[in-house]
Write a structure and sequence with these properties.
The protein contains 14 helices and seven strands. By secondary structure, it is an alpha/beta fold. The longest helix has 25 residues.
Length: 366
């Protein structure tokens, strides 16, 4: 999305006229809940608002007048079923890296009372709706918020730069940048992209796909000799086809050596004189891989930083790589980089690994 610096608003808004959009969206959210309530709308609205309007309001209250900020905080508390003062205390403690402590304040007591009154009215006046629509939607929304918060930090703070996501979620994907500057206005975050930031191709709520699906497949391969033979055969064919394109290789870095270290086993055969180094942030994965490898393959337990200087001749990047994959193609960190990618992502010189695995191997060189 196109981004400009936020400009101060001369009226009721303290920081920017763009915060008026967030106020309008919150009002529209309430209007939808009143006119077309459903469990899905309650869940999605809670998740979306907590990570957009409410989140931005916590860091930079929108209005110049304190009374308006108080009233809007009450409104969000009723809209989301979450006392905003409590949410603010816990969230700011998260940014400070300290345990969140609940300190009962007058504002928090009022918001707790409002939320409690909402629940009492729902159960008294529309108990069927409260039990079958509001409660399931509310719990699902809390679950989505938990997934969002967990996977924003599951392997360090992670950003997601999809234009569509950041348009719909008001630049929430710039999470590394937000943690570096928690008080930065949401419109300015795309101007603060952190060099070498930990990046994912998935928004946080879907980021479990990276860890669950690929790790599950690795576990299956680990337990089956037939699957090991299949993945070794398919990957070796791909590596053989790209070998003539490689410069002279004396050292190879294999990022995310994996639970079953197919790349190291293959390159040990294809490049017997080269020094092989497995780089993996999981010590457990390296211990598992070590059982398959000869002793002269080095294992390094650390997170791979694609922006750091690299003295290796060849780098091999896994499909499960968590980071800015696009940057690897545009700015190869080594003289030659082999990137495992999805079958439909053609970059540089590439060959299909397997249609069944939906994978290809792309070679880019400096």
């Amino acid at each position: 999305m196109a981004v400009t610096f936020a400009s101060p608003s001369p009226g009721l808004l303290r920081h920017s006229k763009w915060d008026g959009l967030l106020v309008a969206l919150a009002i529209a959210h309430g209007g939808l809940l009143l006119t077309t309530p459903s469990a899905a709308l309650i869940a999605l609205g809670l998740w979306w608002n907590a990570n957009t309007v409410s989140h931005n309001f916590i860091h930079r209250p929108f209005f110049r007048v304190r009374t308006l900020n108080t009233i809007f905080s009450w409104y969000l508390s009723l809209l989301l079923g979450l006392p905003q003062t409590l949410w603010r205390e816990r969230h700011l403690a998260h940014h400070a890296g300290i345990p969140g402590r609940i300190r009962l304040q007058p504002s928090m007591a009022i918001e707790l009372g409002l939320v409690l009154a909402l629940w009492v009215m729902l159960w008294a006046w529309v108990p069927t709706f409260a039990l079958t629509v509001y409660l399931p939607g509310y719990l699902l929304g809390l679950g989505l918020c938990y997934l969002q918060g967990h996977y924003e930090h599951a392997r360090g703070t992670v950003s997601h730069y999809s234009r569509l996501y950041n348009l719909l979620f008001l630049n929430d994907g710039y999470h590394v940048e937000h943690h570096q500057r928690p008080g930065e206005h949401w419109r300015q975050l795309p101007r603060r992209v952190a060099h070498g930031a930990h990046v994912s191709r998935w928004p946080a709520v879907l980021r479990w796909i990276e860890s669950v699906n690929l790790c599950l497949l690795e576990r299956w391969v680990l337990r089956s000799k037939v699957l090991q033979w299949f993945v070794l055969k398919k990957h070796e064919n791909a590596f053989r086809r790209l070998l003539p394109e490689l410069p002279k290789v004396h050292s190879v870095g294999i990022v995310g050596g994996g639970i079953f270290p197919r790349t190291a086993l293959i390159l040990k055969r294809l490049l017997p004189e080269a020094r092989l180094v497995l780089i993996d942030m999981s010590a457990e994965n390296l211990r598992t891989a070590r059982a398959f490898l000869p002793a002269d393959v080095d294992c390094v337990n650390r997170r791979f930083d694609s922006s750091a200087p690299c003295e290796l001749d060849l780098l091999v990047i896994p499909l499960a790589f968590v980071g800015d994959r696009t940057a690897l193609y545009h700015r190869p960190p080594a003289p030659a980089v082999l990137v495992h990618d999805w079958l439909w992502r053609r970059r540089g010189t590439g060959v299909a690994v397997s249609w069944a695995l939906l994978k290809r191997l792309n070679l880019v060189k400096r």
